[in-house]
UniProtKB/TrEMBL annotation:
Active-site residue list: S105 (phosphoserine intermediate)
EC id: 3.1.3.1
UniProt cross-references to Pfam families, sorted A to Z: Alk_phosphatase
Cofactor(s), names only, from the UniProt record: Mg(2+); Zn(2+)
Chain residues that bind Mg(2+): D55, D166, T168, E318
Protein's UniProt name: Alkaline phosphatase
List of residues binding Zn(2+): D55, D323, H327, D364, H365, H443
Leader sequence residues: 1-21
Assigned keywords, A-Z: Hydrolase, Magnesium, Metal-binding, Phosphoprotein, Signal, Zinc
A GO term, aspect molecular function: metal ion binding
Gene3D superfamilies in alphabetical order: Alkaline Phosphatase, subunit A
Cofactor mode of binding and number, as noted: Binds 1 Mg(2+) ion.
């Protein structure tokens, strides 16, 4: 009886605060609800599709990245949205490959661009291939959504902060059992003899009907011959940059940010930009790499060139660096690249309309970053776990950072980690400690978020296989204009 009385009293108190239509809750949530109540699914055919990939950007990277981006702008890390968090629709993508619970980036992107899961390490083929073998690759090859879109008259492009022959960008144009076959120097003789080709060659040599119109990223060496003026990686003596330039009167090649900015989009239909020998450097290190364009600048130029096509365009934009720096347990650079991705999304949203452009953003897989409890609002997310200005202590009495990794090269996981000070923990070079010591962090296998806006974006909802995103974009290509 006394328990019953207590619960009645508690219920009464709750009711007292929200009786008779009195507003309760925050104004921001009320505004959001009002917007949601007015929203109707846009079932029109989108003219353009932009697929953003935050490589390795799990929910943990989004949350910590949002706090970091806000704090970098003087905010408290709470009242802030990354650009894609403003999109009206979202869902969860299951990223496993055909043979592993935890995918690599090759299957990760291939599932999205072909609608079929393959083995880890393979791209643009079904699961009937063997890694490191050319056998069966031709038979297993499946057209990518980008090649399909080209055949339907759209222009197509791919932009990345990694090398342009890395797994994710290759998901637009590549067909291989082995993601490491990036130049012919990587290709075993038997594979070459059996008719397999390297990814740089596939990008440049694809038939015009399915060839990418814009490709911006790194990996210059995979396109240049070994014995040339600039010693490249290629053993076949081919200069693929020259091949690209000769393929069309409106083809151009650029190698730095200044030249990219100077590209006259009106006079350029086919743009190749290779801004580093391998992957592009982090913007954190911009002082040392003054003339490398950022992801937003590459995205803008790609859209300028592609949007001239009257039938529309399809573009993939990848922030590869989130993954690259997570592999090194360097959360500072990884989360800086979440911000870079957000900037690129903002640029794309500004240059297009949500009336005619479907934008989908997702990750190909997650990483084992964790934001652990014990960080007071306002304390730097990159720093020590702390509240009231006092660092928290672990069971050994040591201080510890708020961000840690499950696996990787960051030292001091488990009971091993040294006493940390705030200056060390917030240094851009700091590697957050990892529980399992590895030279390179392993990917993580939890579902990743998907965000969408524009025509057909309402189809991105619920929990689904990553391959479902192919179906959504394919539908968007095929739906009849109203
Ligand atoms: Zn990775």
């Amino acid at each position: 009886m006394r328990i019953w009385m207590k619960s009645v009293l508690a219920f009464g108190c709750m009711m007292a605060a929200s009786v008779a239509g009195e507003p309760q809750g925050t104004a921001a949530d009320a505004a959001r609800l009002a917007t949601a109540l007015k929203r109707v699914p846009d079932t029109h055919k989108p003219k353009n599709i932009i697929l953003f990939i935050g490589d390795g950007m799990g929910i943990n990277s989004v949350t910590a990245g949002r706090i970091f981006a806000s704090q970098q702008r003087g905010g408290d890390g709470i009242a802030y949205d990354l650009a894609f968090e403003k999109f009206p629709y979202s869902g969860f993508s299951r990223t496993h490959s055909a043979d592993q619970y935890v995918t690599d980036s090759a299957n990760g992107i291939s599932a999205i661009t072909t609608g079929v899961k393959t083995i880890n390490g393979a791209i643009g083929v079904d699961a009937n291939v063997k890694s490191e073998s050319c056998a069966g690759v031709a038979k297993a090859s499946i057209p990518t959504l980008f090649e399909d879109a080209k055949k339907r008259g759209l222009a197509a492009g791919v932009v990345t902060t990694s090398g342009i022959t890395d797994a994710t960008p290759a998901g637009a144009y590549g067909h291989t059992s082995t993601r490491g076959w990036r130049s012919d120097a990587d290709l075993p003789k038997e594979a070459a003899a059996a008719g397999c080709t390297d990814l740089a060659w596939q990008l440049v040599d694809a038939p015009a009907a399915i060839r990418m119109d814009v490709a911006l990223g790194g990996d210059r060496l995979d396109f240049l011959p070994a014995g040339g003026e600039v010693a490249g990686a290629r053993q076949d003596g081919r200069n693929l940059i020259e091949t690209w330039k000769k393929q069309s009167a409106k083809a151009a090649y650029v190698a730095n940010a200044e030249d990219l900015a100077a590209v006259d989009a009106a006079k350029t239909d086919h743009l190749l930009g290779l801004f580093a020998d391998g992957d592009l450097p982090s913007p954190v290190d911009k002082d040392y790499h003054k003339n490398v364009p950022d992801l937003a600048a590459m995205t803008r130029k790609a859209i300028e060139v592609l949007k001239k096509n009257k039938n529309g365009f399809i573009l993939m934009v990848e922030s590869a660096s989130i993954d690259k720096w997570h592999h090194r347990n360097n959360a500072y650079r990884a989360l800086t690249d979440v911000d870079e991705l957000s900037n690129a999304v903002a640029a794309a949203a500004e240059m297009t309309s949500d009336k005619d452009t479907l934008i989908i953003l997702t990750a190909d897989h997650s990483h084992g970053l964790t934001l652990s409890g014990g960080l007071a609002i306002g304390a730097p997310v990159m720093g020590l776990a702390q509240s009231d200005g006092q660092p928290k202590r672990d069971r050994q009495g040591n201080t510890y950072p708020a961000l840690t990794y499950a696996t990787g090269p960051g030292e001091g996981g488990g009971d091993e980690h040294p006493m940390l000070d705030q200056k060390t923990a917030t240094d851009p070079a700091f590697k957050q400690p990892a529980l399992v010591p590895m030279n390179s962090a392993a990917h993580a296998g939890e579902d990743v978020p998907v965000y969408a806006q524009g025509p057909q974006a309402y189809l991105v909802s619920g929990s689904f296989e990553s391959t479902y995103l192919y179906q959504v974009m394919r539908h968007a290509l095929e739906v009849k204009p109203k």
